[in-house]
Design goal:
heterotetramer, A: 363 residues, 8-stranded mixed β-sheet, 3-stranded antiparallel β-sheet, B: 614 residues, alpha/beta, 7-stranded mixed β-sheet, 6-stranded mixed β-sheet, 20 helices, 21 strands, disordered C terminus, binds thiamine diphosphate, binds iron/sulfur cluster, binds magnesium ion
Chain lengths: 363, 614, 614, 363
């Protein structure tokens, strides 16, 4: 429908994954976002992630609220159901979808207005419930779709296109998630796909709620000099505290991975040394921490580290915290492993005899 | 005449009187005598006045009583009110442990003093025990006064405390003490009293919230999301209890349901819609304030066509209003919920039995019409103890899943258009996530065409919303048919709904007994069936009886049937207490009286009526 | 005949065409010729099709044009549609830099090709500059074709770019290039063209959101809270601009206002109510979805009686709907907003001028009646460029603060009862926090009596809600009086409201010109004044024209005036585009035609009409 | 209206404050809460606080949402306006009230359901705006008024009266507020008035948003064995990390206070030593930190300390963090010092001439 057709994500046409699908099979409708919008790079990263993880396209459910970011869900996985809900309420829709059908690969995409303003309460509570899903927050510091008002993630002093400086302190989804006990917290930058893709992969494999905050510049309203969410500023001020590499279970089994024998979570010893976390499917997430004394499996340390960097004016990116084994929503509520939607009615209705029995008790 | 009287017991909430009152109710019920209980309680946990009204009716009337034959005054804070509410020449039972409070003195009353407090001090130890057992003592006295069979009470106590012998003993004694004192000091039973009947054998004592919860379980609902709010909370809590009883896999101990206490009503609605989208039967239960908070999500479910069930257990509005009082004030808010052009299917149960059956229908309608469906109950139906027929279940029942394309069908078809009206009934087939790549589509609350593709084109937009309008109009034939009680040539027609029914049945009988030819129609679903309009047109004089200030049902009738507003005279009771037949009878008679007498506007009269009864 | 034609320019959004289109509008306006512009844009920031319609009407008609005399096709994505929307034998201007796209070929059209792209490539450098100036080139060609006075354009460019010489130069050149090419290749001006008039001297070009913002400033509003949402965002942004201009203390540089961008609409409503409670004039501005989210708070303000002003700039619903399309779909949602019995004062402006005056009235009514007041605008009124009379201000105006007891009065009185109806008008005096200890009371949305004390008593509760009902009913005489245009003995009456007015004026004139005796009434406020019902009853055949699917205004009329629904024939246009006079004229005529011709249902016809114009 | 009249807060009848008022003048309606409810003790503490700070009763505005806790506002300050709003939305009402009349002494009382479930988004944003107000969160781990469901502050494993254990991680308002940049964060216990009153005083004097989380047991639904919000458990597991004493400006001026001469913020040197913070009105808040290395003016340290205690199963109480001098909402928006409600209409209306001028620009 657009009149400035953008070339679809480029890729070697022939490459196929374990399912015999090409990247094209993971793409969606043509983007209607502004040329250069960070969100389109996130889309590309998601396409690559899903392709490389051999996700069965129609097994995924894509959910979002309202905003330019929310439109992202239409631009990948043509073959799976998508849901553009109402502004800021995607977490509850995702919670319901996952409650009813836990077999769905639940992917939520949101924006900073959607998640940190109108949707802040829902975001906090979906984290608290540890609903198993990948939650991508396309963070640009503004309300793009309504033309550039500051969002709750805008930094103090960051200026709008009109030159006004933001006065209110920002809400950092990463610190918030750590405080609320999130079990997977990472941050990426739409301009750095090599870093972002492994983070998305790990988040997708995580058994619980996986927040991936992605700084995703808005070229139309927040990419100017003076903005702290511009491409330039982000490139200069992000600091990858734990670059990771994902060793998929396949490669592990085929014995390629170094630590294929090891399991459980390994903790880094010296600075720069590598640690690893085993994902539910057996894949390994190997992290190399560039800063001394940093271990993404230690929540308190992670929080302190992120704040320390922030106080130095730097934005921590990479795998910030991961904690496998915490009970997810379904674990906590003891739901059947089989998706509720798959249970036959007969196994749900107590029948007339049971009712008669109950009636006898009610006299 | 026996088996036709009402008691009103005034106590302090949080002091355990509820169980004593329930004991009396149940005992009378066990004696085979029709009985109803109305709990009039405060929005508070402990220390405020609370009342329990027990109506015994051999004729089986279940509405709230208009006149109280015996008052029981156990709360000094409400002595005056309690004495005032007893009918002329009625009886008043009070605690004579202390010199009688002048507030209780009313010349025409038969005063019955029993030293409940003193008895407890003598016979029991410990403040807590004394306070609790005082309730059993007055229960005993009442039992003796109205002639409750002690054996029945003993049986009930056995059932309750069987295992805890000491407790059982204490309760036995307390009841006996109360009874013996009464027998010794008054000539029991009083003129109005009980006589065994066989009228309750195929009935149970049940509240609407429990019944609706049962409906959800039997309908196969698997996801329940809610945020606690009086008077709907007990519905979801019962759902949980029934699920723990019937939905736990005996082998694996896994749960065949998922209940989520949401952080608020917006979230609860979102969870229900998300679950409905994936194909589960999901529901939420709330009250007025929750409906207001769900408005945006309801509009999404309507426009994106997602099955979802919402229970509104109405309480007195507006705003927070009176959380522990009843009303029918959400009718407009529910059926036209959300901004923009919307119209929703709603069911109006009249009693717990219908809460059960209609809850099941709600799920069938929601999936068949792919839209939000509302079960519009109220505090009186939902939380009070109703005598109603034993609930039945037909094991042949299977859910109506509506038009859902499975993998096989999708495999076959050329191309799937989510919002295309293939069958001309306004209902388009849907698909569920995770089933088949060809079933994929994009669900959205923004403008979309018949292929679910985003659009801003006038025609494409209209094609979809026009179809939705046809779809919902079609639901008029699918919702429960109105209950009509008509005779040849009656010129007066009365329309009502929901919780008014108990009082309406009685009022209609009374009016007819007085020689007034009245017909009665109770709407049970929205959109209205054609017969509703026909009924109104067929009667020269129409009354619409409902429990709200603004005659909301009348407005709906005017909008939807086209009958002129003023062809329908509103009869409105909205003080928060369950409707009485008396009120309806008086109002109808007053309106039919010669003009000059019609001075008093409805609301005043209502106030008047309520003054006698509250 | 000159000065009577319409252009439709199709471009790509985010490419700067808006300023070129505005330039043309303004130039025609400066030539003293009545002109209107309608912006039909996508809910997206860059890259999608967008249209701008300019209607020139020497007679001063400001409604959206039904027929397009000249189309301007600059967006390959919409060539086909752009060609299709031009009237028979009309003109089509396109970019002939490349061989003509067959989609543009329509036998009956006069095709005017100008190589806009090529011209820019030749004359300018840099992609960005070329894309931007291309707009000025087509503006120049259009100017030449319709006969816009170049001097006027030069003047406007001077005003815009005066300081930036280089930019000014470039724009001058671009316009000239376009104009010269047209003059050289076509015989300009075209048959339809412009001729200077003096009809706009006491007018301005203004949109409704800016006007409403001005109203808030002049009414003395100090607190504005909002959450951004199309199409209401620009209202609050203008309020901010005007405050920065007029509300900054010259000496201290302190702000005499406080604007709060809330985290969502619930919060925005809460801020407004909190501020209103303390005595400030506070308001929020939103659109449909925001109204749904504010429902709970609106009920609180209604029941606790707190002055508050809500602007609903309606867009196409339901749900997210079409954010950049207009509609009148929130009427029911607004006037009966929130659960329980509620009814709200609403004002329906028809144009920017009324947005200004009614915004001021909204604050007076909110304080006088101590209740939420809604200004119900829409996208067409709020965001489009309207030619309207210069706004006037009477410096004698002072806010109507309603009944507020100050320290002195409180000192005098015995005892303050917040909700006591002393004057019998249903309005009780209020007090503000921080003024005087005797004025203290407890504000609550829960049940309260006339002293604002918590209650669960039926009578005490009813006394308050009955008074509120009387209070709001009384507002019928205080809201803006309906506009009535009636003649002797006309049997046809048309009722409409808000943004339909521009088309209605024209339609009524046309129908009358065709010899049809029609009367016209435009409701301007809710609750309706008595004359509304009288007007409907006085006419044998009534039509209700509105922009929604479900005939919401008609429903309100049936409920509130008692006139039977079917006495009013609905004429509905709800595709999201501003109403055209043509549509109304066709619909009325069709309904009056002999029965057998009435095949086509309203909605289809609407679709038909829209097909031609969208 | 209650039938079990509870004696009003006891106090020496004659004692009066600087305004010549007695404590009675700071009381409100008779409480209708359960006998023994923690909330009533908070009411008593508020009464003492307001009395001792010589607050002019009718200069205060009391706001709350819905809940047993929300009812508290009716039980003190009979002579000031109170507002029971809707559930969870008190922060926005308070923001509006303060926006319009900054001279009001704004006191908000809320519950854990009101603030951490339905109202979480509003709480986070009122913190972010730094609206000047005292925000008392009566935290009992349950929804009292709706009869005891777990709230979002219930600890994992804490059992309900029926014996079910809570499975979801709690939201700690203190950690949340620190993360969101709150400028005053304290925690008290309704059972410890000596500790609570100074905290309330300091919060009331703070120029910005002051959160005082008060563990306030619900005797009807959450005071049993197994509950982590019972009187007993709380007594045994709270740990006062920074007991404070408030030196009111009066006493300072009259030279009584030790550090009367000092000003600015003093930072503690050795463990156990005292530090102080000067409040806007000149009063001093003196804190003694019992734990080593702890300084309430250091946000990051405060956060780490609270978490460390929590990981040890202890609940940090006392003055947890204070930061004077951060811009409050009105500072940030440059509003007139004079309350907006006090501005005469003439100073708000630009007049006809200005309008005419504007109209000329619109041609
Ligand atoms: C209830 C409601 N309020 C407001 C809006 C208008 N609105 C649409 S998107 C948006 C903000 C989007 O910002 P963000 O989530 O950061 O996404 P971005 O466009 O920046 O990617 C707003 C305010 C809406 N659609 N619904
Ligand atoms: C919108 C809305 N939803 C639900 C309710 C019912 N409700 C009243 S108070 C309350 C929770 C109170 O819990 P909390 O805030 O912790 O206060 P507490 O009673 O424990 O002191 C709820 C759910 C309501 N009044 N309004
Ligand atoms: S406005 Fe900003 S966020 Fe929206 S599409 Fe354009 S660049 Fe992206
Ligand atoms: S229920 Fe709990 S919170 Fe409510 S009043 Fe009673 S003790 Fe207090
Ligand atoms: Mg954003
Ligand atoms: Mg609580």
């Amino acid at each position: 429908m657009t009149s400035i057709p953008k070339p679809p994500v480029r890729h070697p046409a022939l490459q196929t994954n374990a399912l015999g699908l090409t990247k094209r099979d993971y793409e969606g409708a043509m983007s209607t976002l502004c040329a250069g919008c960070g969100h389109d790079s996130v889309t590309a990263a998601l396409v690559q992630t899903l392709f490389e993880l051999d996700v069965v396209p129609h097994s995924a459910a894509k959910l979002s609220g309202i905003g330019c970011s929310a439109k992202t869900t239409a631009y990948f996985l043509r073959q799976s159901h998508g849901f553009n809900g109402v502004h800021g309420r995607m977490p509850s829709l995702a919670t319901g979808a996952h409650a009813a059908n836990r077999a769905l690969v639940c992917i939520g995409v949101s924006g900073d207005g959607d998640s940190l303003s109108i949707g802040l309460g829902q975001l906090c509570h979906v984290i608290r419930r540890n609903v198993r899903m990948l939650y991508v927050l396309e963070n640009n510091g503004v309300y793009g779709l309504t033309k550039g008002q500051f969002s709750a993630s805008a930094d103090v002093g960051s200026t709008s296109k009109r030159g006004e400086a933001n006065a209110q302190p920002p809400i950092d989804p990463v610190q918030l998630a750590l405080t609320l006990g999130a079990t997977f917290v990472a941050r990426g930058f739409s301009g750095d796909k090599t870093q972002l893709v492994p983070l998305l992969k790990a988040g997708l494999l995580h058994d619980g709620f996986a927040l991936v905050d992605v700084i995703s510049p808005c070229v139309s309203f927040n990419d100017h000099e003076g903005s702290t969410k511009s491409y330039r500023f982000t490139r200069e001020h992000t600091h990858d505290i734990a670059p990771i590499e994902l060793v998929p279970v396949r490669r592990r089994q085929s014995g390629i991975a170094a630590m294929a024998d090891a399991d459980g979570n390994g903790h880094r010893t010296g600075p720069g040394a590598a640690g690893f976390v085993t994902m539910p499917d057996g894949s390994l997430v190997r992290f190399r921490t560039v800063d001394d004394q940093y271990d993404p499996t230690d929540r308190n340390a992670a929080y302190a580290h992120v704040r320390a960097l922030r106080d130095r004016g730097e934005v921590a990116t990479g795998l910030i915290h991961v904690h496998e084994g915490a009970p997810s929503m379904h674990d906590a509520s003891g739901t059947t492993k089989a998706p509720l939607v798959s249970l036959p009615y007969e196994s749900l209705c107590p029948g007339s005899a049971a009712l008669a029995e109950l009636m006898d008790e009610m006299r | 005449m026996p088996n036709d009287f009402a008691l009103r017991i005034g106590t302090v909430n949080g002091t355990g009187s509820a169980s004593a009152n329930g004991l009396l109710m149940q005992a009378i019920f066990r004696m085979g005598i029709p009985v109803t209980g109305k709990n009039i309680f405060p929005s508070n946990i402990q220390g405020l006045p609370t009342w329990y009204e027990i109506r015994v009716s051999g004729d089986g009337w279940t509405a709230r009583p208009a006149a109280i034959d015996m008052g029981v005054a156990l709360n000094p804070a409400t002595y005056a009110r309690d004495a005032a509410t007893v009918r002329e020449d009625g009886w008043l039972l009070y605690d004579s442990s202390w010199p009688m409070d002048p507030k209780l003195a009313r010349a025409d009353l038969h005063l019955l003093g029993v030293p409940f407090g003193a008895i407890c001090v003598e016979s029991f130890t410990g403040d807590r025990e004394r306070t609790l057992l005082r309730n059993m003592v007055y229960a005993g006295s009442i039992a003796a006064l109205v002639g409750i069979d002690m054996a029945v009470i003993d049986g009930l106590l056995e059932e309750r405390f069987g295992k805890k012998r000491a407790l059982l003993e204490a309760n036995f004694r307390a009841v006996r003490l109360g009874a013996d004192y009464a027998l010794a000091h008054f000539d029991c039973p009083l003129p109005f009293h009980l006589e065994r009947m066989e009228a309750t054998s195929d009935h149970v004592l049940l509240d609407g919230n429990t019944a609706a919860a049962l409906g959800a379980v039997y309908a196969g609902a698997t996801v329940g999301a809610w945020y606690p709010i009086t008077p709907s909370t007990s519905l979801m809590e019962s759902f949980g209890e029934f699920c723990r009883r019937w939905r736990v896999d005996p082998a694996t101990k896994e749960n065949r349901y998922c209940m989520i206490q949401a952080e608020d009503e917006l979230s609860a609605a979102g969870i229900v819609i998300g679950a409905g989208w994936t194909g589960a039967r999901a529901f939420t239960s709330t009250s007025g304030p929750g409906i207001s908070l769900m408005e945006e999500f309801i509009g999404l479910a309507y426009y994106a066509e997602i099955p979802s069930v919402f229970v509104d257990v109405q309480r007195t509005g507006p705003s927070t209003g009176m959380p522990t009082r009843t009303q029918q004030g959400d009718l407009m808010a529910v059926v036209y919920a959300s901004h923009g052009d919307t119209k929703h299917i709603a069911l109006f149960p009249a009693n717990p039995e219908e809460c059960f059956t209609m809850m099941v229908q709600a799920f069938d309608l929601a999936e068949r019409f792919q839209t939000p469906v509302f079960l519009v109950s109220d505090l009186d139906i939902g939380m009070n103890d109703w005598m109603c027929r034993r609930l039945q279940w037909d094991d042949a029942y299977r859910p109506d899943r509506g038009k859902v394309l499975g993998a096989a069908e999708l495999e076959r078809i050329e191309r799937f258009s989510r919002y295309l009206d293939r069958d001309g009934d306004g209902i388009a087939a849907r698909t569920l996530p995770g089933v088949h790549p060809k079933g994929a589509y994009f669900t959205r609350g923004s403008g979309h065409d018949k292929d679910a593709v985003y659009t801003e084109d006038a025609d494409a937009y209209r094609e979809v919303v026009d179809r939705i309008a046809r779809k919902i109009a079609g639901a008029a034939d699918a919702v429960p048919f109105p209950e009509v009680d008509a005779q040849e040539g009656a010129e007066i027609g009365i329309v009502s709904l929901g919780g008014c029914h108990a009082a309406m049945r009685e009022a209609v009988a009374t009016l007819r007994a007085r020689g007034l030819a009245v017909d009665y129609l109770r709407v049970r679903g929205f959109p209205f069936d054609g017969v509703v309009g026909a009924f109104l047109r067929a009667h020269e004089r129409c009354f619409v009886v409902e429990q709200n200030r603004d005659a909301q049902l009348r407005s709906l009738l005017a909008i939807e049937t086209g009958v002129a507003r003023d062809h329908m005279t509103p009869i409105l009771d909205y003080g928060g207490l369950p409707l009485t037949a008396q009120f309806v009878v008086d109002e109808v008679t007053r309106r039919l009286a010669p003009a000059e007498e019609i001075a008093l506007p409805a609301t005043r009269a209502a106030a008047g009526a309520a003054r006698v009864t509250a």
